[in-house]
Amino acid sequence: MPRPVARVLALLELLQSGGIRTVTELADRLDVDERTVRRYVGHLVDLDVPVESVRGRYGGYRLAPGYRMPPLMLSDDEALAVLLGLVAGRRAGLATDTASETAAAKIRRVLPERLSRRLDAVLGSLAFTDRPGEAVAPESTVLLAIADAVNHHRPISIRYTAADGRRSERTLHPHGVVAHSGRWYVTAADLTVGEDRTFRLDRITGVRTLPGSFEPPAGLDPAKRVLTGLATAPYRHEVTLRIQGTAEQIHTRLPAGIAIVEELPSPSSADPQTVRWSRVGLRVERLDWLPAVLASLDRPFIVERPDELRGLVEALAERLTNSARRSPPHE
What we know:
By secondary structure, the protein is α+β, with helices and mostly antiparallel strands. It has helices at about 5-15, 25-30, 35-45, 75-90, 95-110, 115-125, 140-150, 220-230, 245-250, 290-295, 305-325, and strands at about 50-55, 60-65, 155-160, 165-180, 185-190, 195-200, 205-210, 235-245, 260-265, 275-285, 300-305. The protein starts with a helix and ends in a 6-residue tail after the last helix. The mean pLDDT is about 80.
């Protein structure tokens, strides 16, 4: 590729990155003088690329808002990052299978054969240590409408189908959109019942923006609210534990979406070097998996309730003791 053409394309990539670029900055990046930069800008305009000139002290050049470039301008690293992002997004429920596949296909069609083969080699050799979860991506129209309402503090009306199949229409003040464990949620003030609620986006079939605006609560943390809501959802067993350790240490085995951890104050007479205890609350459908998780924490703990869990911990300890004492068979 002739060097002037390569520099014109490099100029286009710089403008694609967004914002206003001064002539001096562009000249330094392209290693040319400012007059040459203006000539290169003229070449882009001749190719119908809408480059705008911004006057003033902080003026320069920028691409017209909304202008979209085709993916053939991606570098090797950028192409790999996009395709890996599509794979990871599909597994995490951040995008639908169809959207990910069609987007990847469009990128592949314009890649040079050399790069396409190398990317195929990476994707073909890629393995994940975790199994793909039950990822459920929301409809893009629903996600975009709710995100816009969150950003502009607009009330919305939604059609919602609950887990038991009941359908309803609700008026919300949406506070935030949260992606967690393969699902999308919106935290909101539900004006229909006068309470703060969390809704799954894949159960929303329609969104309508309403007139007016609202002021979101101060200090709101939508992600924390979703995790707290999941951890306190009604389940068959309510578990209360005391574990010697900090919330950060305990969450390595009992994530925030499962357990609520409250660090307890140390007694005034305690040694400052002594690790404090925390109270941990869980709501679970089954207890059989908890003893092994508690053992993996490798920290002292006390089962406050239920008694059934205490029996399961004792049974696991007995099995481990018997296994440790067992001698290998003689050959």
